[in-house]
Design a protein that fits this description.
Layout (H helix, E strand, L loop, with lengths): L1 H35 L1 H17 L7 E5 L10 E5 L7 H7 L5 E6 L9 H7 L3 E3 L4 H18 L2 E4 L17 H9 L4 E8 L1 H4 L12 E6 L10 H22 L3
Parallel strand pairs: 1-7, 2-5, 2-6, 3-4, 3-5
Antiparallel strand pairs: 6-7
Helix pairs in contact: 1-2, 2-3, 5-6
Length: 252
């Protein structure tokens, strides 16, 4: 009962900090972009997402990031994650900040959200129209070519939509196939997000107090001579196995 009571003011502080950080860093991004281009703007985005991630401490979240030593160097990466909530993006950006993650995102997010929309438009992400497969393929192809040329990373959520219960949905393979076609030297890095479903079991308010949030990098997969559909199934199985392990450790 006490945790439930504390969750209300804690949730207010989380959303206030989110709003303030997003509004504050929007002009910061713009200034950095025009003052020094990509490099300085990216640093501001990294700091923003560190702040967003640890804003969840207001509701007693315990944050653990593991497996970063497994991230390979010297090749472009395709980061594949399960999708649980609105909170999935900051841990990807912060954990993989050295690898310049770009996102495959629906085009609607490219407008109207302070900081987020600006970063998507100016950071090299692919903004896709889900109702227009041709446009989606073109944008994802551009992203694949970009990471191949720069050695950066692309982040995708192959479930497409969030799983509010935490139960994995089917992983779609079309986006991965397009990325691999344009970035043949890329390695696949599964990234497990655990706890956001429990954090939001009541919806956006109040957030659940005291949830352990686990973010786990799994062993990289070389996609050479493997088709995208098979790879998607393999990655999903690996993420599911890790989720099962984490939930046995922390059932609540």
């Amino acid at each position: 009962m006490m945790k439930r009571i504390i969750s209300y003011p804690g949730s207010v502080l989380v959303w206030l900090s989110y709003g303030l950080l997003l509004c504050l860093f929007h002009p910061v991004q713009v200034i950095c972009h025009y003052a020094n281009g990509y490099s300085l703007r990216k640093k501001s985005v990294d700091i923003l997402n560190l702040g967003l991630l640890y804003s969840l401490s207001f509701v007693g979240c315990r944050i653990r990031i593991t497996g970063l030593e497994k991230v390979p160097k010297g090749r472009p990466l395709i980061i594949i994650s399960n999708h649980q909530s609105f909170f999935d993006i900051p841990p990807v950006i912060w954990a993989f900040r050295k690898y310049h993650p770009k996102f495959v995102s629906k085009k609607e997010l490219g407008k109207g959200i302070p900081s987020v929309s600006y970063n998507l438009r100016h950071g090299g992400s692919a903004l896709i129209d889900r109702k227009n497969p041709r446009q989606s393929i073109i944008e994802i192809s551009k992203l694949g070519k970009h990471i191949e040329e720069t050695g950066y990373s692309a982040s995708i959520f192959p479930e497409g939509t969030r799983s509010k219960t935490g139960k994995l949905k089917t992983f779609q393979s079309a986006g991965l196939a397009t990325l691999l076609k344009k970035a043949p030297s890329a390695l696949i890095v599964p990234f497990v997000l655990d706890g956001h479903d429990r954090l939001m079991k009541n919806g956006y308010f109040p957030l659940t107090f005291g949830v352990r949030l686990n973010y786990c990098v799994l062993e990289a997969i070389d996609p050479k001579n493997r088709d995208a559909e098979n790879l998607s199934i393999d990655v999903r199985d690996k993420i599911q196995k890790k989720l099962d392990e984490l939930r046995q450790e922390n059932p609540k």
